[in-house]
Amino acid sequence: MKLYVIRHGRTNINDEHKYYGSLDDDINETGVKQAKEAREKVKALDIDLIICSPLLRTKHTCEIINANEVSVIYDDRIVERETGTLEGKELGDFYDTDYWNYYSKQKIEGLETIPDLLGRVKLFLDEIKVKYADKNVLLVTHGGVARAIYYYFNPLPTDGMLNVFNTKNCEIKEYVL
Asked: How far apart are alpha carbons 42 and 65 in whole angstroms?
């Protein structure tokens, strides 16, 4: 089973460098252009199923890239990391020091911890690995979930800083489950 992962196209909130998890921001003009470019790459992939986050930015990206009109399932388990009280605030030092630190002890109300995010994504991947073992699957998701998927396949850094990996908007990663 091949697993392809694509992050949604660029949004205005991405451009504003703010935290957002469940804010339902659509992709902007740049994001549409990125998705159209990714569509050509997706068209060449042998994909049997798309699983997409139900947020507007991923759904819109999915609509554009689904050139082969593959069946789509929407799944809440691949929504972006919940940002709690950080939602809508500008990224600052915390983003670089603690936000992606697996071992962070900082408590932010409503912020999904890295261990919780990785656990959620692990359970999801473990399930689809069995349920869709004979299929190639494309996930249309978010940067935080794409990061968690990367660390499903790769060891955590010893310092716990997961900010060494990042997925660009509409970048496609390939894994074998």
From this structure: 7
Please name the amino acid found at residue 14: N
Which residue range(s) make up the domain with 54? 2-176
In the predicted model, residues of the chain with pLDDT beneath 70 are none
Q: What are phi and psi of 135, to 5 degrees?
A: -125, 155
∠129-62-79 over CA atoms, to 5°?
60
Q: Output the pLDDT for position 53.
A: 98
The answer to whether the beta carbons of residues 173 and 4 sit under 8 Å apart is yes
Is residue 142 a contact partner of residue 23, using CB atoms and an 8 Å limit? no
CATH classification at residue 33: 3.40.50.1240
* Predicted pLDDT of residue 29: 98
Q: How many domains does the chain have?
A: 1
Tell me which H or E stretch contains 80.
none
Give 3-state DSSP helix, strand, coil % of the chain, rounded to 5: 40, 20, 40
The letter for the amino acid at 57 is R
For residue 116, the model assigns a pLDDT of 97
pTM of the model as a whole: 0.96
What pLDDT is recorded for position 161?
A: 95
